[in-house]
Amino acid sequence: MTRKVAIVGSGYMGGGIAQVLALSGATVALADVSAEVAENNYQRLINESKDFVADGLFPEDATEKLEQHLSVAASVEEAVADADFIEEAVPEVLDIKNDIHARISAAAKPEAIIASNTSTISIGEMAKSVQHPGRFLGVHFSNPSPFIPGVEIIPHAGTDGATVEAAKQIVESTGKETAVVKDVTGFVLNRLQYALFHEATQLVEEGVADPEDIDTLVRTTFGFRLPFFGPFAIADMAGLDVYNFCYKSLQTDFPERFATPKILSDLVEAGKLGTKSGAGFLDVPSERTPELIAYRNKAYVAMQKLIEDLGPAPLQ
Q1: In the sheet that 85-88 helps form, which strands lie side by side, from edge to edge?
Q2: How far apart are CA 77 and CA 103, in angstroms?
Q3: Mean pLDDT by 10-residue block, N- to C-terminus, for the chain (316 residues)?
Q4: Which ranges of the chain would DSSP assign to H, the alpha helix?
Q5: What are phi and psi of 53, to 5 degrees?
Q6: CA 151 to CA 146: how far, in whole Å?
Q7: 63, 49 Cβ separation under 8 angstroms
Q8: What is the pLDDT of residue 316?
Q9: Could you tell me the CA-to-CA distances from 150 to 27, 103, 117, 142, 212 in Å, in that order?
Q10: Which string of b and e fits 121-148 if b means at least 16 CB within 10 Å?
């Protein structure tokens, strides 16, 4: 059965999400403040798709698939009337979102899942404007949504478990990877992203390094690892005892900013030092360490070759 989807908000993010879902085979209705705005953005998405196909970024049949599965609705109410899944991607203003969610939930089927693409606003706060709030949650795609593979799934305290599972299934059917996180300020993605940015700005303000050199270090050292391993896998491979020692060194000048996380010191005290001990944050069996190291080395060489093939980013 073809899944029916509505995207409310046809701008850069909403349009990209519409492309993702339509290319997965869903029937997608696009809505905005007016049919004219939605139509203009529809034409932009079709033209953009042709460019992506020409550049090898979309499959050869992508434009035809979008023309077949993506359409413009005359209104928000028309778009959502028979939709199974509705993704809201309007501006990050609570009043605007609450108004749209009220309109969506009044016009949609009671069982339709309603999701917000918000990156900052409390899901629980927005749920107050939704009829049947158990079917409401955050489904946060990242920019540019056609090409970033990870999606945050953010239930609020009252979201039904079945809604979470259904949203995961819908997103994963597009080829994306999902992570379910709690409804806290910044969720996970932005808490991590802005923590890094905050520390980077501190280094610039302190005169330690300039932005260009900091960017160079991030992308060529620890950032180079991140496409393959998250922070816990990296820590396990480095050794949690090493991390514990490094925190103590950082505390000589920054005692509060780099206080040792209790979860780290507890593992070290228990003798769980990461892959070398067969237990850590991820509990990778020690007998798999050679296989893991081989994968890591192969991945890093492949990444360097990709970077060399692409050439430097046109930042100057």
Answers
A1: 70-72, 27-31, 4-8, 85-88, 113-116, 136-141, 150-155, 177-180
A2: 7
A3: 89 98 98 97 98 98 98 98 98 96 97 96 97 98 97 98 98 98 96 97 98 98 97 96 97 95 97 94 90 97 97 91
A4: 12-23, 35-54, 62-69, 76-80, 94-107, 123-127, 161-172, 189-205, 211-220, 222-225, 231-238, 240-250, 262-269, 289-310
A5: -65, -45
A6: 11
A7: yes
A8: 78
A9: 22, 29, 13, 7, 27
A10: bbbbebbebbebbebbbbbbbbeebbee
Question: If you search the block for the tokens 């955050």, which residue do you land on?
Answer: 138
**What token pair was written down for 70?**
């993506």
Does the bond joining 144 to the residue before it have cis omega, within 30 degrees of 0?
yes
**Distance of alpha carbon 20 from alpha carbon 15, whole angstroms:** 9
Q: pTM for the whole thing?
A: 0.95
Q: Return the SS3 of 280.
A: coil
Q: Is beta strand 150-155 parallel, antiparallel or unpaired with respect to 70-72?
A: unpaired
Structure tokens given for 224: 């180079």
Beta-bridge partners for 86: 6, 114
Q: How far apart are CA 123 and CA 233, in angstroms?
A: 29
Q: Please state the three-class secondary structure of 73-126 as a single string.
A: CCCHHHHHCCCCEEEECCCCCHHHHHHHHHHHHHHCCCCCEEEECCCCCCHHHH
**Quick one: tokens of 199?**
């520390």
Collapsed DSSP state (helix, strand, coil) of residue 46:
helix
Query: Tokens representing 1?
Result: 């059965």
CB 110 within 8 A of CB 66: no
